[in-house]
Input
Amino acid sequence: RGIRWCCVWSSMEAFKTYLGSRTVSSLTQSRDPLVLDEGLSPSEAFHVLAQASIRAAPVVSQTSNQIVGTLDLRDTCKFFVEVHNAKQQAQSDASHAKSHLQKLSEEEEVVDASTDIPITPIPKKSGQSGVLLGLEKHPSMSHTNEGGAGIGYLAKMRPFKVFPPDATLLEVAHPLSHGSHIVGVSGGGADKGGLSKIVTQGILFREICSELCKLQSTVGDVMRTPVLTMPSSGLAFEAFQLIASKGISGIAVVDDTGSILQNTSSSDLKMWAAGESEGKEGAVSMHTDTVEEFLVKLRASSSGSKTRYPCSICHPDDSLGHAAGMLEKTGYHRVYVVNSNDDRRPCGVISISDLLRTAC
Output
């Protein structure tokens, strides 16, 4: 065992040395900066991300032209869930208040019971998130852009890191393994917030995957537990509600025995938002479809997306290189860990962030 851990430590040190020897300018891949104006509404901004098929983008101030933070697809879950909850609360408050007034009209003849009375819902005063407080003025609530809140309040929750071109990959790997999906590289024009390029978590992972495959650690050494799961019979909305409440990117969808069937994440919500037609006959619905129905319909309707397996699995004794190779091949951001092919109940999960964190 001592010899094994010596090999693990030695391979990790070699990996860190490799990352420290390469600079951002040496990357063979990068992405042109796409920046979002903080005046965009969340619905508009998330639509831009969906149409561009990207997970996150920096947000620029309208007044200073400086980057104020990051809008991330993980925020779509929070946004859509809280918009839905706010609408449900408003409808409940309005219905309760109207029933109360109609009862008074019947008993005291104060108001004609047949008259429609506009009710202003009472805002929640305790336990209300900062995001939800801004939704009363949001375009998605009022169906108008007048007075709507922009995305600045969401972006400021996720700082955006900018590095010079001569920064090392080790420096860049730290934020990309601790919550950030993207970082920027300086040297661009003012219209791009001073950015010359964007480096994503996926770009860095693909660049260094061959070196990750040399690590001597096993999946069991790095995997995270416990695994958050959602029964396939639960509503899709409940799955995204769980993702939003935990502030994570994705969860495992399991059958009634606890065996893993699929993975769902904020990327699925991105696909739904891009082609969302809720309310139409046969449309994908996050409010009435089970999570399994939602995912099957959604992926069947996304003809332009790559054909993928429902999810990837590996075992605790598999090498870290094996897991990295699976992530590179499938394009997924996480792989679930099961004890055996006969026992497909997830006992752990390993993501690109976890792999990058081994060096940080």
